Amino acid sequence: MENEVDRGLIRRISDESGQKIGVIRAALEMVSEEISAAFGTESTAYFRTEGSAGLSTTGLAGTLQVAPGVELDIRPKFLAPNAKDWRKDFAAALSVSLAGRLLPKRKVATDFDRHAQFARLVATEWLQSYRKHSGAIIRTYRRRAIREIELVGQVDWSRLSDLDERGFPQSKVVFGRDNRHNTLMAEAALHLREQLADPSLRDGLELAAAQLMRDGRAPSRSAPGSLPTRSRRWTDLIELSHDILSERTPHFREGIRTTSGYVFRTWTVWQDLCEVALRAHDEWSVDAQPPLRIGSRGSKDFHVTPDLLVRIPGVKRPVIVDAKYKKRGDDSVITNSTDAYEALAFLRAANSRTAVLLYPEDAEETLDLVVGFVRIVEVISVGKNRIVAAKVNTRDLGATKGVELFATTIAEGVRQIVDDL
After folding, report:
1. pLDDT tens column, 384-399
2. In what order do the strands lie in the sheet with 257-265?
3. Sheet harboring 154-155: ordered strands across?
4. What is the distance between the alpha carbons of residues 125 and 115, in angstroms, rounded to a whole number?
5. What is the pTM of this model?
6. Which of 281, 285, 318, 372 could form a disulfide with 409 if both were Cys (CB 3.0 to 4.6 A apart)?
7. What is the DSSP code string of 376-421?
């Protein structure tokens, strides 16, 4: 689990893969580099070795391959390990956040149902990669059969008598987009589109498919073949497209399929969950990370930026909502002085009186709570200002209508806090 030390994990990975412990340590460093590259950040040590064979992760959750034949499941700290469907909760969290990234080189075994739950993440990643390279779509030379009155290509003299209103049968070499690489990607985009409800993602995938096949669809029954050197930038997207299409045709023993590994930064997902939940209420006005002037630095304004500034009908002043993601600790002292000073700055800048700090509920404490339940842990009073630290249950987020219930319940909890104060 995230942030927890497993004292013998590296040794178990070593035993499972047949690799030496030193090799596994080096592999984990390489995985950290790949994850940092996927997020577009500077190199970050997502894995920490503890003692001779211990391992822990920091701010990261997901599923990925760390050694040949060895997959690592990293569970977020707020999802209970003994819950029957914690992986569905995991998928539901990803479905409302863009904080996830795919790791095409870190394949993991999957099944169709589980893979389908990550369609939004896969579609977002696919479109981001496509748009990055769409200015240089793959073009190859291909011989085409044509008919023209003018002799513009290689004439088939044996069929010269086969003249019709379109011209002579001939062939010519064309430099265009109708190749198996583009067809593979276009078919993957259209297949992925059918798994999605989000209209913006569906439209983006449909447009991409049309652009890739603008010159026509090439036969795709055979392997695409090697990429031209000038188009190697498309390698990862082609591999991802192959994964997407592979889910509909079992091609490994016993029907097992593979898909790209996936990871997400847990604190970002938590922030997204809180924002999406509060935005679900149309009558509420929710501003994300608004710059609030609190003073000046020299001749320039100085701003602070809370996660959310919420205006609720019937409530005179706006409410500050800040998503916090801390290590588990004693409930009696959950808010440290830094968070308290920061909240007071937000309150002053927003002319508010109430700040709600939302922490994810610890996994083992969620057994009897409805998803989205807000439990007040402590209240800090500074004059007329109140800083309320509360924990929110995420268990059963992946149940039927779990995300909707999460949004409704968390909003009720925030509104109750405001009314009670």
Report:
1. 999 999 999 888 887 8
2. 70-74, 60-67, 257-265, 100-110
3. 140-148, 168-176, 154-155
4. 14
5. 0.69
6. 372
7. EEEEEEETTEEEEEEEE--TTTTSTTHHHHHHHHHHHHHHHHHHH-
Place of tokens 């990234």: 101
User: What's the confidence (pLDDT) of residue 247?
Assistant: 55
Tokens representing 363 are 């996994």
What gap in Å lies between CA 90 and CA 80, rounded to an integer?
A: 10
Q: For 85-101, what is each residue's pLDDT tens digit? A: 667 777 777 777 766 66
Contact 275, 410 (CB under 8 A): no
Q: In 10 A of CB 67, how many CB atoms?
A: 18
- Which domains, ranges and CATH numbers included, belong to the chain? 9-130+244-264 (no CATH), 132-232 (no CATH), 267-420 (3.40.1350)
User: What percent of the chain clears pLDDT 90, i.e. is strictly above it?
Assistant: 25
Quick check: 220 pLDDT over 60? no
User: Of 346 and 330, which is predicted with more confidence?
Assistant: 346
